[in-house]
Amino acid sequence: MGLKSIAAMMSLLVLALAYGNCQKKENGENDVSSLDATCEGALKETFKASYYPWLRSKCASCHFSGADGIIGKGFGDKNTTVAFKDFFGLGEPRVRTMALDPEHQSGLTGTQNSGIISTARSSWELGKIKFDSCVLARNGGQPPPPPVNTIGKLIARPATIKLNNPNRAGCKNAAGVVQPACILGSVATDFVRMTWNLGTDLMPDANNPNLAGVTFDIEVGVADYSPDLPTAGKNYFYYHFRNPRLTNNSGSNILVSGFMLKLNGETYFDGTTFTMLNQTVNAGVNLFLLNNQTMAMGGNFLIVPGSDLVSFMFSGIGPTTLTGTVTPTFTSLFGPAGTVRGACVACHLNGTANAGALAAFNMSTFAGVSAKVTPGNAAVSRVILRMESLITAPTANQSVMPPAPNARVSQTEIDKVKAWINAGAQNN
Questions:
Q1: How far is CA 257 from the centre of its chain?
Q2: Residue 102, Cβ neighbours under 10 Å: how many?
Q3: What pLDDT shows up at residue 57?
Q4: Among 206, 235, 312, 362, which is least packed, fewest CB within 10 Å?
Q5: Neighbours of 345 (CB within 10 A)
Q6: Residues near 371 by Cβ (< 8 Å), separated by ≥ 6?
Q7: What angle do CA 101, 104, 108 make, to 5 degrees?
Q8: Contact 79, 56 (CB under 8 A)
């Protein structure tokens, strides 16, 4: 059945818009982050018991994560989370229509599937009713916020487009280590941040909520994946979008159901990871909605750096009476009475007996701590790598902090530091 990939950039999950048949894609792998156990998780179980067995038997050869031309339609993937997210994003009616269309894939799709599809549809629709009720209860009885679309903004063409193919000649040193010149994001200037004021930068729509004081921003970079011998006429440029952030100065808490990216007005359906956020951003807070993940588009989908417009479609965003998780502050963690400070400043404090390199990493000041974190990305922040080094085998450059015989920082406190970093590592 011929009906794909969000990439994660801790490594780099590459989503590539492409049009073709059922070929394996070189770049691309769906994110498989966990789903809410009470709502999305229950609907996923309904999917597994209804449509999924048939989709695996009839559609898996084409509709898998990373297949060329299968844009957000990996509902036959062997990973049930990937399959469910793409099925949910595409919509049951469209999948059902294709399953019953004899011209879609002769011999596989058509009216001969009417019985099994009818049974699957009944089960799915019952599960969807329960899902909608679950979401309503989760939202405190409030209906979901309305969908909105931002205006398109021109993606600036960078002065230098970063080569991002480690297999290119000269990209690795003698030891086989990929050099920074061939790693997108190795320097901060590889990305620029684009911002939308959601009070003014929305497309006209009667359903638009009052979002004055709310801004959405995201980082974008441009990479060139061309090999040493590029194929004439083939496009090797990719846009990479990362670290989406919502800043809420509206005076009300804001609920974000999810969002998708649009390029030149065309919705990029591969962003299934972003369709089930259900995050509440409290008033006065700026929050990275997702961390360590990058959306990338390019390949056979022609992009022209310097002439493309990007916009975003929020499946739901608006004021809510719900309260989001309160993010720990720098002061609560590393201030004079901070819960983590005491485990660090015996060594990492100017004027201590352990002078030199340790004292230079001053854990009592924002400047000292922020020098060792990557805002929005706790997973690669040195502070976290050192404090969590007992969880994995420590190396010479990743020794236990605090070192024995000092007590290790509790996982609860480490998780608070992670939350502070992922929320932007603010000086608060």
A1: 14
A2: 13
A3: 93
A4: 206
A5: 17
A6: 361
A7: 80
A8: no
Say if residue 270's pLDDT is above 60: no
CB 147 within 8 A of CB 313: yes
Q: Please, how many CA atoms are within 13 Å of residue 411, restricted to the half-sphere of its CB?
A: 3
Backbone angles phi, psi at 368, to 5 degrees: -70, -45
**C-alpha–C-alpha distance, residues 133 and 112, integer Å:** 34
State pLDDT tens for residues 278-330. 888 888 887 777 655 667 666 555 678 888 999 998 988 998 888 877 778 88
- Report the distance separating Cα 378 and Cα 396, nearest Å: 21
**Tally of CB atoms within 10 A around 340:** 23
Question: What is the C-alpha separation between 217 and 222, in angstroms, rounded?
Answer: 17
The token duo for 379 is 């997973």
Between vectors from CA 58 to CA 54 and to CA 61, what angle results, nearest 5°? 130
> Nearest to residue 214, comparing CAs of 244, 258, 243, 246?
246
Using CA atoms, how far apart are residues 87 and 74, in angstroms rounded to an integer?
8
Under 8 Å between Cβ of 65 and 82: yes
Q: With helix as H, strand as E and coil as C, how does the chain read? A: CCCCCCEECCCCCCCCCCCCCCCECCCCCCCCCCCCCCCHHHHHHHHHHCCHHHHHHHHCCCCCCCECCCCCCCCCCCCHHHHHHHHHHHCHHHHHHHHCCCCCCECCECHHHHHHHHHHHHHHHHHHHHHHHHHHHHCCCCCCCCCEEECCEECCCCCCCEECCCCCCCCECCCCCECHHHCCCCCHHHCEEEEEECCCCECCCCCCCCCCCEEEEEEEEEEECCCCCCCCCCCCEEEEEEEEEEEECCCCEEEEEEEEEEECCEEECCCHHHHHCCEEECCCEEEECCCCEEEEEECCCCCCCCCCEEEEEEEEEEEECCCCCCCCCHHHHHCCCCCCHHHCCCCCCCCCCCCCHHHHCCCCCHHHHHCCCCCCCHHHCHHHHHHCCCCCCCCCCCCCCCCCCCCCCCHHHHHHHHHHHHCCCCCC
Lowest mean pLDDT among 218-222, 251-255, 312-316, 348-352: 348-352
The alpha carbon of residue 320 and the mean position of all alpha carbons in its chain are separated, in whole angstroms, by 23
* Mean pLDDT of the chain, nearest integer: 77
Is the pLDDT at 203 greater than 70? The verdict is: yes
CB contact at 8 A, 198 and 215: yes
